[in-house]
Amino acid sequence: MTRALSLGSLVIASALWLVACGDDGAGVDDGGPGMDGMTACASGETVCGGACVDTGSDPANCGGCGTACATGEVCDTGSCAAMCSAGLTDCGGACVDTQTTAAHCGGCGAACASGESCAAGACTGAMCTPNGMACAAPGDCCSGTCEAGTCAAAPMCRATGAPCATAADCCSAACNDSAGAACAGSGDCVCAPASGCAAAGEACTGDGQCCNGLCDRPGGGADGTCASFGACLTAGEPCGTEGLNGSCCSTVCLDADGTGARCQFLGGCRVQDELCRTDAECCSGACRMAGMTADGRPITRCANVDSCLPAGEVCGDGGASSNCCPNGGGDTGCEPTGGGFRRCLGGTGDCTLPGRPCTTTAECCAETFPNIMCQPGVGGENLCCLADGQGCAFGDVCCSGVCTPDPTDGVLRCGSMCIADGQPCTVDSDCCGCGCVADGAGGLACTSDMALCDPCTGPDLGEFCTPGGEPCCNAPAVTCQGSNEFATCRLAP
Q: Is residue 87 in a domain?
């Protein structure tokens, strides 16, 4: 069957219509077969075992008396069909997630207004700007494309081998001339394969080949293309220009491993629209279905379930919003991290923000992190920060500067010990080995395999550095900035 149905279709109309008899004793015939000459079934119903049933909707008698549907099927217009899977609702013959789908937010046909998004079954303020509206950067737009100050439809990228003029023409973000060098307007350039993992839209035969871990193969064929999601680019996708880049969900684009500039994970929780597997991975605590691949698999991304941005979300850079929680906070709590890009810290203007110097615990903003205390942080200075073992959003709120997934339950917690190979991580600096790399199952794990790690031996983005000392990795896009004692590798201004 091709039509999927909701659990609501299981409701059966089974009331008996009792009809009074005339003086001649004949039953009233209203179009259905009579029962013992006394009672008639309603139009469209059939007598089955002495009861009137609608064989068009009764799964025990679907299409005829005694013709039962299989377990897990429902009856619709006299035919058996599979019901929608858990969490989905039948809306006009299509199974949709009314918790995240803007066209059916909270119920079939209950559409959100233009530019609003759906989270937890409720429409929230615009998370992105719809096409045709004013924008300042690509990250402002739902399409990820801002042209001449107006959001426009995202252009279709070109596959490997197609003619191109610039890297932006290609799904792989690589446009090369006949000698294999980056195109310089010679006119004989074609899209080249992406270095490392395959970008969205590139050819693939298995999930592990794709940066996003989804090789889309409709019909179960051997060949497919890496899934395309729209909106912003998820971590690992080619992104072109290094530095702050609004095309990335994280807003940070760097060539961290020599395979070309790619969107980066920021460390700690995953920001809005990054791919996820569990709620615990997301800054918002909400990993939600955001569509399906062409071959029928769910796409799950971190969703914002509030009208403000929770601790850990990027803010105020690369086209990102600055409305940090609590509601109405605006720029308050949107502060530069050790990497130079901004993230929400969680707090208000009348208390000391997490990660900032303090004198007493009473002054620390405790709304987001109730267990925060004024205690020695990285470098020994008293900071409003979280002790080892406390739940965290990212390293800046921890006294140790490290916020990593607990291997027992995946929850992000502060810790001062480096992570062993094979254990979950969020950034290279979490690990005892040389790096934090894809684990092949949608997550990240520590490794000591130098073939998989960034060959740079200097400090990475966000790590402590010495001005005038060993250059930061990804220089000149990343430089050592700050005072001698607390200088870190940050995105170049």
A: yes
